[in-house]
Amino acid sequence: MRVLIIDGYTDEPAGLGVPPFIDIYPRYVAGAVWAASPGAEVLYITIDDARRDPDRLRSLSASSDLSVLIAGVTVPGKYLSGAPATHNDAIRIPALLGSRYRAICGPAVRFGFGRGGCSRSVAKDLSALYDFVITGDSEIVVHRLVKENFGEGVDLNSVRESAGSSDAFAERGARVIRQHPFFPDGLVCEIETYRGCPRSVLGGCSFCTEPLHGYPEFRTVRGVAREVAALHSEGAVNFRVGRQPDLLVYGSRDKGLACPAPNPSAIRRLFSSIRRSAPSLRVLHIDNCNPATIAEHPELSEEALKEVVRYHTPGDTAALGIESVDEEVIRRNNLKVDYEGAMRAISLINRVGAARGQNGMPHLLPGLNFVYGLPGETKTTYEANFEFMKEALDSGLLFRRVNLRQVMVMPSTRMESSGDYLVRKHRHLFLSHKLKVRQEIDLPMMKRIVPEFTVLKGVRTELVQGGMTWGRQVGSYPVLVGIPRQLEVGQFIDVLVVSHGPRSVGGLRFPVKINELELRELESIPGVGAKRAASIVLKRPFPSLESFMEKFGGVPEIARMAQFLEF
Ligand code: SF4
User: Fold this and answer.
1) CATH numeric code, 2-147
2) Residue nearest atom 7 of ligand 1, based on CA coordinates
3) What's the CA gap between 191 and 477, in Å, rounded?
4) How far, in Å, are 313, 420, 422, 444, 494 from residue 451 at the CA level?
5) pLDDT tens-digit profile of 494-547?
6) Cys-Cys crosslink for 335: which of 35, 171, 330, 450, Cβ 3.0 to 4.6 Å?
7) pLDDT for res 117
8) Ligand 1 contacts CB of residue 198 (under 6 A)
9) Which of 200, 208, 293, 332 to mutate to test the pocket of ligand 1 (most atoms within 8 A of CB)?
């Protein structure tokens, strides 16, 4: 038995699989194959590699029994290190596959292919191109297909019977990560703790697909820990507990409530077990937290967040789905939190997480998510949301980033009947709002979070473009760093921050070796400029800090940098 997994990457409200992340789909599917056929060979290729090298795709699939394409981006973002599979890929790829059978799975099958700037996602019929269009849980269906030798009786709509049904596949599939191009140091394994949303009892937010999974049922701490141990023993060092809509309610004892109370001891058991299972991990981060949980249960939320901060690694982000603070939009879309509640949630996370960690970043900051194009939206909505961000900024609070997105209308959600009329009508309003937020909120906030001369440790270089190298620390919503010289991709370096943009910072390799800097790097130092940079180059090499300061120490900005220089 030989199975080829083509990872077209996934991005959903609760779960990310675009590099540097590897989502649960390829790992669970690989585990399902190995559980059904222990001697099977499972091959893995990313969609980027498949596009770059179609011959390799052809040859890998040629002697395979099954090729599985995983695809689906339901909350499209901007990606630095990967381009998710599109509808065109899904149409083009089957013709390149020489395997006996072809399958497609992932959110694209249920919800269609989302693209940035496309406000409506339509599920397309792919059954003419694929032998198996898997509408159920991919690992459950693939397990049955392999076990029953691709017989006709397998229900492609089969789903997990309980939250732990796929634990064995999760553990068994760990070794597939070794084939990922970012393995080991650059790869982040997305970890699932549950799916579904407590607010499904109230119908959920109008635009969201998560309530379709019903009320949450949690994986056990033991199930998660065994998976993490398996991943770690294969070489994984970076983890994000990101696959759930609200980490804070993991293990909650409240049943059937729309806003259950956190259970801090469950969070402690979860995180301490992960630490024990992966003793030499480098990154342990989280993702979504429901701001309403924090606003409704401040004490228990604070305790739970303190447990996270006790066991995680710094540079972490709790993404808050605020969506809108306009009361009419909140009412019409059954949103979860209002202006005051969201502000309380941001303050509380600051209280617990704002202290700076050893990698140069604050420990845990809120990320703010807003959604536009929802029913009830008017020009006032944009003003109210902006006023909210401005108040948070002016109160001295920190937030890691603001994510503004236009709603993608998903099949089977309540938004389906409202459509994308307001997204189209307000496109210009949205663009000018975004620009205003970038300049008046993001830029000052970036300067506050990563002040000039902060040393960011362990920045991984990811892309070289136009003489600039772009990199990020590994983890949840890391700051994008631009270094004005060409460096080898895949290296880990420390960076001294010297300039700021709304969405990125500019930096120099730390410690700063003034005798080796390129002209462009010298020019990027505050207060240096083209003329002084040229003069430094002409007078180099400087044998010591003293000799350098003798010539340039009169420039205040350079004097401030002295402690970061190396000769
Ligand atoms: S709270 Fe709203 S946005 Fe969050 S998962 Fe539930 S339904 Fe979706």
Assistant:
1) 3.40.50
2) 204
3) 16
4) 20, 40, 38, 10, 15
5) 999 999 999 999 999 999 999 999 999 999 998 888 999 999 999 999 999 999
6) 330
7) 47
8) no
9) 208
